[in-house]
Amino acid sequence: MPTALITGITGQDGSYLAEFLLDRGYEVWGMVRRASTDSHERIDHILDRLHLVQGDLLDQPSLMAAFAVAEPDEVYNLAAQSFVPTSWSQPVLTAEFTAVGVTRMLEAIRQVNPAIRFYQASSSEMFGMVRETPQTELTPLHPRSPYGVAKCYGHYITVNYRESYDMFCCSGILFNHESPRRGLEFVTRKVTDGAVRIKLGLAERLSLGNLDAQRDWGFAGDYVHAMWLMLQQDTPDDFVIATGKTHTVERLVELAFAQVGLDPNDHVDTDPRFVRPAEVDILVGDATKARTKLGWEPRVSFEELIAMMVNADLQRLSS
Ligand code: NAP
Ligand code: GDD
């Protein structure tokens, strides 16, 4: 039975990946940071099948201890400060978690067992002010947020450990992916939750930022499959994971409100508080390499994704 260790197991992707690996017969370890209360909401339903070990990306000895106790064959580094706006208010902490944290992970693996296969959660946010459309593995990077800059560091240190030490390190450049488990501050979930609250009389208005931004949105459940596929190859490599279709935030709002039978013009306004100091205007990925080499395909369309999220919020808030 192979063993996997996931950092960020309490997050959106960590919970889907844990389910995916358990279904494939893996022994799954999750690294969690110490908190005064547990934040296991997304993994409550599988908690009895998981092994949890405490550790923090800021603390290298805790990473080494986690690897020593779990003895993983595969490590998925999903932990990060992942919310872009927070990276302007906490730029140094974001760099410590999201950038240097990756070096701590790689160094711990190198010292405990360099044969461990490593997945790094890189991001389309690295493309920032895009140099070409669609974006591929070869598109130059131009990050537009402290988060994007930190992810560029994490990406290249992963490539560097592969090239320096011949370690099996892969970087997945994932475009935005969402689900009913998405954090409430990200725009898809903010909109689906907001539309449902207005429908149920729990809220009156929804305030958003830039409605013109365009994103290539996919379903998180499809994307964790790609992470696993990367670590099953003969040679380590980097892959763009995306749907190849892009939509505006405005279109997202139209779809979510239509799903609950409301006109967004009656309920949605824009608030400069949610506009970013520097914006990523458009992202759309070309996942040809993943399709060809990994045999990976996204299964859930944007329209199906938003319907799934609205329905889940309806169910949650009606009960
Ligand atoms: P998420 O829901 O925000 O989850 C982040 C996870 O990281 C949580 O489990 C959090 O633990 C953990 N974490 C944060 N700081 C930590 C630290 N210092 N030590 C240990 N754990 C820490 O993020 P996600 O959407 O699942 O994304 C997973 C990864 O993919 C992230 O690295 C993100 O940057 C990257 N990514 C995401 C997308 C996307 O669209 N979702 C796209 C590209 C890349 P707590 O529960 O304790 O807070
Ligand atoms: N969060 C948020 N809230 N975003 C808004 C709002 C709002 O009220 N109004 C408009 N937007 C716009 C943002 O300006 C951005 O252009 C877009 O909606 C998407 O914002 P988020 O959902 O916060 O995601 P993100 O694209 O900044 O970052 C996500 O995707 C990255 C991959 O490209 C995160 O998951 C990152 O961790 C990930 O790396």
Textual characterization of the structure:
- This protein is of the alpha/beta class and about 325 residues long.
- The chain has two domains: about 5-175 and about 220-240, Rossmann fold; about 185-215 and about 245-285 and about 300-319, UDP-galactose 4-epimerase, domain 1.
- The protein has helices at about 10-25, 60-70, 85-90, 90-110, 145-165, 185-200, 220-230, 250-260, 290-295, 300-319; strands spanning about 5, 25-30, 50-55, 75, 115-125, 170-175, 175-180, 205-210, 215, 220, 240, 245-250, 270.
- Strands 3-2-1-4-5-6-11 form a seven-stranded parallel sheet, sandwiched between helices. The chain has a two-stranded parallel sheet with strand order 7-10.
- Helix 1 (about 10-25) links the parallel strand 1 and strand 2.
- Helix 4 (about 90-110) packs parallel to helix 5 (about 145-165) and helix 6 (about 185-200) packs across helix 10.
- The protein is globular.
- The mean pLDDT is about 100.
- NADP nicotinamide-adenine-dinucleotide phosphate binds near residues 12, 33 and 79.
SSE diagram, text form:
Blueprint lengths: L2 E5 L4 H12 L3 E6 L18 E4 L5 H11 L3 E4 L8 H4 L1 H22 L4 E7 L22 H20 L3 E6 L2 E2 L8 H13 L6 E3 L5 E2 L2 E2 H12 L6 E4 L5 E2 H11 L8 E3 L17 H7 L7 H17 L1
Parallel strand pairs: 1-2, 1-4, 2-3, 4-5, 5-6, 6-11, 7-10, 8-13
Antiparallel strand pairs: 9-12
Bound molecules: NADP nicotinamide-adenine-dinucleotide phosphate and guanosine-5'-diphosphate-alpha-D-mannose.
NADP nicotinamide-adenine-dinucleotide phosphate (NAP) binds next to helix 1 and strand 5.
